[in-house]
UniProtKB/TrEMBL annotation:
This is Lysine histidine transporter 1. Keywords: Amino-acid transport, Cell membrane, Membrane, Transmembrane, Transmembrane helix, Transport. It comes from Nicotiana tabacum. Belongs to the amino acid/polyamine transporter 2 family. Amino acid/auxin permease (AAAP) (TC 2.A.18.2) subfamily. Its main location: membrane. GO terms for cellular component: membrane; plasma membrane. Residues 37-439 form the Amino acid transporter transmembrane domain. It is a multi-pass membrane protein.
Length: 455
C-alpha cells in the first residue's frame, strides 16, 4: 500500500468519512485530532519551541569539539537538510486526497505498510520524545539551581539563603509545573505556553551571544582541539556531531502540529504550515548561528558546555537568562509530551477499550510526568545516554527517514534532482546515526565511573 504514488488515478478525490459515531467522538477527544482551528503563526512558535531547545547553549562547545571548518559546515548543512526534510513532511501530510496523516507513524504506515511502519517509526519517535522530556526535566532543574546559586552568591550575608540544595529537589520543583500543565487537552490549548517558550528561546539566545560580544575575545583564546591525543580528539569530534544532531530534532512533532490546522481542497493545511515553518527556521538561524559562532570566537576551546556558565557576569543578566531557559523548557516539554499522551490515550481507548474520561487522562498523564521526573533524578547525566540512544533515533527521524518515505511513495526518477538530493540527505543522516552515538557512549563511561545514585 505504501509504495503507491499519490498521482495514481485509483485515489479517490471525494473520499467519504466512513468513521462510526464512536470513532468520531474518540477522535474529537484525542489530543492531536480534537482541535483543527490553529493559525499559521501557531505553527511558527510551536516549531520554534520544538526545535530551539536549551541545547542551543551547548553549540559553542560543539564548535570547539568540531573546529571552525567542520563546525560551520555541519551547522549550515544540518540547517539546510532539516529544512528540506521538514518541507517533505509538510507536503506528505495530505498527499492522499481526502486523508490526513496526523501522526508520524501514520505516514510511516502509508510508506512501509501497517505493521512495518509502526515498528520503524514508533520506537524511534518515543525515544526522541520521552528522551527529550527527561533531558528537559534535568535542564529545567539545573537552570533553577543555577538561578538559586547566583542569588545566594549575591546575598552571602542572608542567613535564610540555603546553598546546598540537591539538584533532585530542583527537578521536583520543575516537575510540579507539569503535573498541572500536562492536563491541558491538546496542542491549541498549550499555544500560550508555546508562544512564551518561543519568545524565551530567542531572548536567552540573544543574551548568550550579546553578553559574549560584550565580554570580547579572551586574551588566551585557542581555536585548536582541546584533547591532547588523537583518540580524544576523535571522540570529542563525534560527540560534537551528536550535539548538533540533538539541536535539530523538531521533526518528531511536525505532522502532529500540522494536524491542528484546518484544511480544505481549496486551502490545504500545507500552505499556512509552510509559512509558519519558514518563520520558525529564520528564528532558528537567528538563535543557532550567532550563539555557536560568536561563543566559540570569544572563548575558543575553553568554552563551557553551557555558554552561560562561561559568562557568569553580569549576575542579574545570567540569572535572568537561566529563568528564560526554565520557561522555554516548560513549553518544550509540553510540545514533546503531547504526541506521547496521544499515543498512550489512543492505545487505552481504541485498543484496550477504556472510556475516554477526564480521570483516565488525569492518571495517564500524571504517571508519565512522574516517570520522566524519576528518570531525570536517577540519571542527571541523561544527556550522555541520549547522545548514545538518541543518535539512533534523532538522525533517522530528522535527517533521512522523511527522505526514505519520499522515495518510497513518490518514486522520483533515478538520477533526477529529487533522487540525488534525497540520497545525499540519507547518506549524511546515516553517518550521523552511526558516528554520533560513539561520543555519547564514551561520555556515559566517563561519567558513570564516579557517579553515585541520588547523591
Amino acid at each position: 500500500m505504501g509504495t503507491q504514488a499519490p498521482s495514481d488515478p485509483n485515489y479517490n478525490n471525494d473520499k467519504v468519512d466512513t468513521r462510526t459515531a464512536e470513532e468520531k467522538a474518540i477522535d474529537a477527544w484525542l489530543p492531536i485530532t480534537s482541535s483543527r482551528n490553529a493559525k499559521w503563526w501557531y505553527s511558527a512558535f510551536h516549531n520554534v519551541t520544538a526545535m530551539v531547545g536549551a541545547g542551543v547553549l551547548s553549540l559553542p562547545y560543539a564548535m570547539a569539539e568540531l573546529g571552525w571548518g567542520p563546525g560551520v559546515t555541519v551547522m549550515v548543512v544540518s540547517w539546510i537538510i532539516t529544512l528540506y526534510t521538514l518541507w517533505q513532511m509538510v507536503e506528505m501530510h495530505e498527499m492522499v486526497p481526502g486523508k490526513r496523516f496526523d501522526r508520524y507513524h501514520e505516514l510511516g504506515q502509508h510508506a512501509f505498510g501497517e505493521k512495518l511502519g509502526l515498528w520503524i517509526v514508533v520506537p524511534q519517535q518515543l525515544i526522541v520524545e520521552v528522551g527529550v522530556d527527561i533531558v528537559y526535566m534535568v535542564t529545567g532543574g539545573r537552570s533553577l539551581m543555577k538561578v538559586h546559586e547566583l542569588v545566594c552568591t549575591k546575598n552571602e550575608d542572608n542567613i535564610h539563603c540555603t546553598k546546598d540544595i540537591k539538584l533532585s529537589y530542583f527537578i521536583m520543583i520543575f516537575a510540579s509545573v507539569h503535573f498541572v500543565l500536562s492536563h491541558l487537552p491538546n496542542f491549541n490549548s498549550i499555544s500560550g505556553v508555546s508562544l512564551a517558550a518561543a519568545v524565551m528561546s530567542l531572548s536567552y539566545s540573544t543574551i548568550a551571544w550579546g553578553a559574549s560580544v560584550k565580554k570580547g575575545v579572551q586574551p588566551d583564546v585557542d581555536y585548536g582541539y582541546k584533547a591532547h591525543s588523537t583518540s580524544g580528539t576523535v571522540f570529542n569530534f563525534l560527540s560534537g556531531l551528536g550535539e548538533v544532531a540533538f539541536a535539530y530534532a523538531g521533526h518528531n512533532v511536525v505532522l502532529e502540529i500540522q494536524a491542528t490546522i484546518p484544511s480544505t481542497p481549496e486551502k490545504p493545511s500545507k500552505i499556512p504550515m509552510w509559512r509558519g515553518v519558514v518563520v520558525a527556521y529564520i528564528v532558528v538561524a537567528l538563535c543557532y548561528f550567532p550563539v555557536a559562532f560568536i561563543g566559540y570566537w570569544m572563548f575558543g576551546n575553553s568554552v563551557e558546555d553551557n555558554i552561560l556558565v562561561s559568562l557568569n557576569k553580569p549576575t542579574w543578566l545570567i540569572a535572568m537568562a537561566n529563568m528564560f531557559v526554565v520557561v522555554h523548557v516548560i513549553g518544550s516539554y509540553q510540545i514533546y509530551a503531547m504526541p506521547v499522551f496521544d499515543m498512550l490515550e489512543t492505545v487505552l481507548v481504541k485498543k484496550l477499550r477504556f472510556s475516554p474520561t477526564w480521570y483516565l487522562r488525569f492518571v495517564t498523564r500524571n504517571i508519565y510526568v512522574a516517570f520522566t521526573m524519576f528518570v531525570g533524578i536517577t540519571f542527571p547525566f541523561f544527556g550522555g545516554l541520549l547522545g548514545f540512544f538518541g543518535g539512533f533515533a534523532f538522525a533517522p527521524t530528522t535527517y533521512f527517514l522523511p527522505c526514505i518515505m519520499w522515495l518510497a511513495i513518490y518514486k522520483p526518477r533515478r538520477w533526477s534532482l529529487s533522487w540525488i538530493a534525497n540520497w545525499i540527505c540519507i547518506i549524511f543522516g546515516v553517518l550521523l546515526m552511526v558516528l554520533a552515538p560513539i561520543g555519547g557512549l564514551r561520555s556515559i563511561i566517563v561519567q558513570a565511573k564516579t557517579y553515585k545514585f541520588y547523591n
